[in-house]
Write a structure and sequence with these properties.
The protein is α+β, with helices and mostly antiparallel strands. It is built from six helices and eight strands; from the N terminus they run αββααββαβαβαββ. It has helices at about 15-35, 70-75, 85-95, 125-130, 160-170, 190-195, and strands spanning about 35-45, 60-65, 105-110, 115-120, 140-150, 180-185, 200-210, 215-220.
Length: about 230
């Protein structure tokens, strides 16, 4: 394994008052789920053995490991932050607080500002993945890309597909050939972005959450070779 991508877990250090605000946002998110909530996500897959030309962003970026000082910049909240973004940021902060390693950021080379974050997990993280719920266990040659986030200041610049394509290639350093990621079937912009960086539909994940999200059922269905959704263009 290349030591260049081995990271120590991030120790997220948001202040107690901020943690309380984020907790309240996550609770509100659970309340919105109601007594029953059902969703379907595509599991998209990329084979790193297949040649692929990564897309480029509209600004110069580089990808590097996440460091703790990136988080307050990437996950900042102010008066202009929308309710939807507040919820997404709260989820990313909660994930960062779990101190999982192998987070990566894209950096705007014009000013050095981090402008995208995503975590890459391998089969060695299966115990952690099991505790997350909502994801299949990884085979030895698989990796999972999750919790992508682009701050509002850098949206519309093609950063997500460019950065995600580069981060996916880091999976080779942990012995993975295949990289998977999950996107809600209604999130067309993200689905398009994933296809631009070499991913194609491979699974369907059906999730049923009961009692304000306290109970859940997950099922994963492999898309067969003749299923038109495997080659669907979003």
């Amino acid at each position: 394994m290349s030591t260049s991508t081995v990271q120590k877990p991030i120790n997220s250090s948001f202040d107690p008052a901020d943690r309380l605000r984020q907790f309240r946002i996550r609770v509100a998110g659970r309340l919105r789920l109601g007594l029953r909530f059902e969703s379907i996500r595509f599991g998209l897959r990329r084979d790193l053995a297949q040649p692929f030309a990564a897309p480029t962003a509209k600004i110069p970026i580089l990808v590097r490991p996440l460091v703790e000082t990136d988080l307050p910049i990437l996950l900042a909240v102010d008066a202009a932050t929308s309710p939807a973004d507040r919820f997404e940021i709260a989820c990313r902060r909660a994930f960062a607080a779990k101190r999982i390693a192998r987070g990566f950021v894209a950096v705007d080379e014009r000013d050095g500002r981090p402008c995208y974050v995503q975590w890459l997990l391998g089969a060695a993280d299966n115990d952690f993945i099991r505790r997350l719920h909502g994801f299949p266990q990884l085979a030895a040659d698989e990796a999972l890309l999750e919790n992508a986030y682009t701050p509002a200041s850098h949206r519309g610049l093609g950063i997500m597909p460019a950065a995600m394509a580069l981060i996916a290639e880091k999976a080779e350093t942990i012995g993975a050939r295949y990289v998977i990621t999950f996107v809600d079937q209604d999130n067309i912009p993200s689905l398009k972005g994933c296809q631009r960086c070499g991913f194609s539909p491979d699974l369907l994940h059906r999730q049923v959450r009961l009692g304000f999200g306290l109970f859940r059922r997950d099922s994963f269905t492999k898309l067969t070779g003749d299923d038109p959704r495997r080659t669907q263009k979003f």
